[in-house]
Amino acid sequence: MYPLGLGPLHISFYGHYSYYTMPQWGTDPSSKWIQDNLNIHISGISADGNAKLTLRKMIVNKQLPDIADGRIYYFPNYYTNRPYGNAGYVLNKKIYRRLAI
């Protein structure tokens, strides 16, 4: 397992949705703390309104991101009477068990 904070960790992230643009990493309190204290730096890759074309270009150019959204799923917020945002997350526990998290 990678020891967080030992050295800088640079990760690219792609959300495979035409409408999605990742917020700038390090501008909100949570990601700023992670960046400053654990030395994790995440750069988002935008789909620019055409997720299928963006993914094809990444495959052809052999420039795939370190993380691609597709193993963390979300569902509408009607599961709670106090919604925050418009969705809740469902995590694949099998992946987390393998990572020993």
Describe the structure.
The mean pLDDT is 79. The strands form 2 sheets. The chain has a 3-stranded parallel β-sheet. A two-stranded antiparallel sheet has the order 4-5. Helix content is 27%, strand content 24%. The chain folds into 2 domains: 7-70, no CATH class; 71-101, no CATH class. It has helices at 29-38, 51-60, 93-99; strands at residues 9-14, 40-45, 67-68, 72-76, 87-91. It has 3 helices and 5 strands. The longest helix is centred in the first third of the chain and has 10 residues, at 29-38. It is an alpha/beta fold and 101 residues long. It is globular and about 35 Å long.
Largest sheet composition: 3 strands, parallel
Order of helices and strands: EHEHEEEH
Our measurement of the CA-to-CA distance between the termini, rounded to an integer number of angstroms, reads: 10 Å
User: What gross morphology would you assign?
Assistant: globular
- Helix content, binned percent: 25-40%
Quote the beta fraction: 15-25%
The gyration radius over C-alpha positions equals 16 Å
Structure summary, number of beta strands: 5
How many domains? The number is 2
Q: What is the topology, as strand order, of the major beta sheet? A: 2-1-3
Give the mean pLDDT.
Answer: 79
Low-confidence stretches: none
Task: Decide which structural class fits the backbone.
Answer: alpha/beta
The count of helical stretches stands at 3
